[in-house]
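Support reply, case 0932

Customer input (verbatim):
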Amino acid sequence: MAKAVLTKYIQPDVLSRVEQYAFQPRGLVEGTLAGAHKSPFHGFAVEFAGHREYVAGDDLRHLDWNVYFRTDKHMLKQYEMETNLVCHLMLDVSASMRYGEADTQKLLYASRMAVTLGYLVVEQSDKVSLATFDDRVRDARRPSNSMRQILDMTETLDEVQPVNKTAIGPAMLDLASRAGRRSIIVVFSDFFVDLNDLEDALQRLRYDRHEIVLMQTLHPDELHFNMDGMIRFVGLEDEDVFLTRPTDVRNAYLDAMNKFNERLAAICEANQVERVLVDTGRPMAELFADYLQQRALVHRRW
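Our regenerated output:
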């Protein structure tokens, strides 16, 4: 049973395309273990960062005698510690995420991306957590770098019942109170929410110096509205029913969607938040590999 659930969320073709990439932070992180990421704290470890003047009580082993012979000043070598990454995954399990069929369903697509990303994080000996939310946090697992964490994540996701409305602001603020030290927070959602509440939550998380990635997960119908005939639209998070020909409302819909996405993009840019548009009609192996490759290139420039 456990293996069947795992293979539902981690697909071999996706994993083979993305496992060559490391999920690196764009800035500095804090951690408790020796790992692969630079820490903002200075100590005596790993990578040379600079000098500071000696004060009484400092460890004389770290005096830079070359500097002393040149300047007659006692200067200590300082180093940047390298530390582990903590990646918090947040998955929207509200009713609107039910949209789509089979592999293009938004919730299934986002769940697979989350589990695969969690697997990559654990593979590089870093910690990952998962929180599911709708109008509140439904389940939250503590960060772990054990492969058991990935199996537990899949079992949690397999029990999700997406029936409630979304209230992303309170859920993100709840996570902010739990997250503690600086980390990467990756949110999977369609973000059909009150953008003022979202911005308030993002500002709180950025104040705590977390790096934030918004994976905006949308179905091709939502992106392009390429539907024909007479269609009965039924609200997933309310009881609204709307019978119409899509061709009659397509232009108005696309205009509203473009304005919504432009405002979301502006909020992300203003708050230094990364936004990734995830089209569930696109092969996941291709989309995920392109994103991780681009992120790796940006990381090298930091």
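We compared this against your earlier run and they match. Two observations from our side: Residues 37-83 form one domain. The longest strand covers residues 75-83. Please reopen the case if you see a mismatch on your end.
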